[in-house]
Amino acid sequence: MERILLVEDDKMISQSLYAFLTQEGFAAACVSGQRAARELLEKKSFDLALLDISLEDGNGFSLCGALRQEYNLPVIFLTASGDEYSVVAGFDMGAEDYIRKPFRPRELVSRIRAVLRRTGRGQSIMDFYGVRVDTNKAVVVKDGQELALSALEYRLLLLFCQNKGQVLTRERLLSEMWDMAGEFVNDNTLTVYIKRLREKIEDDPAKPERIKTVRGLGYRA
User: What domains can you pick out in the chain, each with its CATH number?
Assistant: First the structure.
């Protein structure tokens, strides 16, 4: 489970982001300023920092430099300051990415995972009840054989891997597939892709054990 440090002095944003990141399978911790961030980093290690520029006790640019130099921690700026100077300054301080508020939560997660992969900090091998998923190579193996998955089948499998034990509603799955495909995905299409994925990863697709239907809600992995 990747560990994310969120440094944000807006309590509403901090609370909503913490809830969302936790829901997405990250281990998140929130602090409001530089001092608190440094104190926490002396006790715990993290894989990535989400950092605002305006903090309660200083400037996010200087903290970014410390996170990079002292802790070798990848940084993504989350800020309302989208002017060219701020963007350039952020990258000059060593930030991996710069996302302007307001942003779409799903896009944020996608860019977090991209940075984690790029910096070698993301979890690259996942086990899904005996199905091996290599996220760096986008390779899925079952019983020693590589499975041929379409882009949307692979995306669905990742969602279930990242949310093992949780119920994923059909609405959530439809939203994720829509973002991935760049076009409208309807309820019938989701049913088709769930069926196709089960045919490839289940021992008995007629009696699925890896992706179970939760009637009236969606699916549980």
Answer: 3-118 (3.40.50.2300), 125-220 (1.10.10.10)
